[in-house]
Specification:
Helix content: over 70%
Order of helices and strands: HHHHHHHHEHHEHHHHHHHHH
Distance between the termini: 50 Å
Radius of gyration: 28 Å
Number of helices: 19
Length: 476
């Protein structure tokens, strides 16, 4: 006999109450969770409504085709508006915001260098992964399309297509081999941007060969640190004393190169990318070495690292930029022509490295002592333990701080206007506003530059979050 009050089958599932799901739940939890939160939400909405009401006519009455600010105002008045954005200044001067005063017939050179930068980044972002090949393919298509739109000579377009096709083949068939493109990219980019004899980059590359040769000769007898220091000193002597003679001899034998472009013609976002990307790429390894030096048991190395880090962190960046502009030349041999952009890059790199060293030191301090003891138990020496066990974990922990430092560094490239370089925010904008046709224009250039900076920095932030999720393997 069965009990009539006992259910013999399950009821079908029902949706949660409307107050426990969907948009209503989100609004209640995030905007109206209490009296104070509700009041602040209402006040915030009123402020947003007021700002939109105030600025919307200015955006709706935008003018894109005009030859002067006065013509923009006439067009807005003819349409019955009181005010409107004059984006025609961006349309008329976009090339200066992007390239500065770089020769217009050579725009393909920074465009190709910019495209090759993403090819060089592919093995760094996607090591031994076909995603890197997809990145190379997209970069190749956009690079060639940009060169065609800039009316680049057909021969140059054809050479670019061949180069990009070859790089895509390498990225698809042998993705690890693309790391050689990453290592050679700085010299290729320097040759494309500044021009001159191709042998200048080759002669510079020989300095790194000097480091390798000296290191291998002394490493077994003097150790890693001393051998590396000796190699760097030997390379510095070569670069300062001998490189000019090597470059001159090779150029006399086989004069191959591109028309030279002086540094005072660089400007806009081209200058920001050169300084920002170079400083970011160079400051990270230097920051790692400084962090390790600060935690070293060797008194001299620790003292030098601590002194450098604390001194640089206690000095404003603008002071270092003035040092690069005015004082650094006095410490070089007579008749040495040290480019201003290169001087700025060196000082900005050192500034960023000091902050990165503290970020990475925090990651090292967060690791439990057992990781170091495990490395010792495996019989690894100091550098093997750092490379295989300690540093990968420390860098993973430090990703938010590292990317935050990179974003701050890229935004700080606008300070180079104080030493006479044409940054996109202040340098180029002042030149544009000095033109009588655009005298009095204000908001449009700053909004344009600010949006581009936001997109670049937001992209770096999103990638860092993706990297954090990808490397978060401890609680899976």
């Amino acid at each position: 006999m069965s009990n009539s009050y006992v259910r013999t089958q399950m009821l079908p599932p029902q949706e949660a109450p409307i107050g426990e799901r969907g948009a209503i739940k989100w609004l209640r939890d995030n905007l109206f969770s209490g009296p104070l939160n509700s009041l602040l939400t209402i006040l915030g909405l009123l402020v947003v409504f007021y700002l939109v009401k105030l600025s919307l006519p200015w955006w709706l009455n935008s003018v894109w085709n005009a030859n002067s600010l006065g013509e923009c105002r006439d067009i807005v008045a003819a349409a019955g508006g009181e005010s409107g954005a004059c984006w025609a200044v961006i349309k008329a001067r976009w090339h200066q915001y992007i390239f500065g005063f770089y020769p217009q017939d050579a725009y393909w050179r920074p465009v190709l260098a910019f495209g090759l930068m993403f090819v060089a980044l592919a093995p760094v972002l996607y090591w031994n992964d076909r995603k890197g090949a997809i990145m190379v393919a997209l970069t190749a298509a956009l690079t060639v399309l940009s060169m065609v739109l800039l009316n680049t000579p057909g021969t140059v377009d054809l050479v670019a297509i061949v180069i990009m096709a070859a790089l895509f083949a390498v990225a698809w068939l042998m993705p690890k081999k693309l790391i050689f493109v990453t290592l050679l990219y700085p010299f290729v980019a320097f040759f494309l941007l500044w021009g001159g004899p191709v042998w200048k980059g080759v002669a510079t590359l020989l300095g790194f060969a000097v480091i390798v040769v000296v290191y291998r000769l002394l490493q077994s007898r003097l150790g890693v640190v001393v051998a590396t220091a000796a190699g760097v000193v030997a390379a510095a002597v070569y670069w300062i004393v001998l490189q000019g003679y090597v470059t001159g001899a090779l150029t006399a034998i086989l004069p191959i190169g591109l028309p030279a472009v002086s540094s005072d013609q660089f400007g806009g976002f081209l200058l920001a990318f050169i300084i920002g990307v170079t400083a970011i790429a160079c400051s990270l390894p230097l920051g790692v070495l400084l962090a390790l030096g600060r935690r070293s048991d060797m008194l001299l190395i620790k003292t030098l690292s601590v002194g450098f880090i604390e001194f640089v962190r206690g000095v404003p960046l603008i002071t270092l930029l003035f040092t690069a502009s005015l004082l650094l030349q006095y410490f070089l041999p007579p008749q040495t022509n040290f480019d201003l952009i290169l001087r700025v890059i060196i000082l900005v790199t050192l500034f960023s490295a000091a902050y990165l060293a503290e970020v990475i030191r925090g990651g090292l301090a967060a690791l439990p002592r057992g990781q170091y003891e495990a490395a010792d138990a495996l019989g690894l020496d100091y550098w093997q333990a750092q490379r295989l066990i300690i540093m990968p974990q420390a860098l993973k922990i430090s990703i938010p701080g590292i990317v935050s430092t990179f974003i701050g560094l890229f935004k700080d490239t606008t300070l180079v206007s104080f030493v006479g370089l044409l940054d996109p925010l202040r340098g180029v904008t002042q030149i544009v506003r000095a033109d009588i046709n655009w005298k009095g224009i204000y908001w449009e250039p700053y909004i344009f530059v600010g949006v581009i900076f936001f997109l670049i920095c937001f992209g770096m932030s999103r990638y860092s979050m993706y990297l954090e999720r990808k490397l978060k393997t401890d609680h899976r």
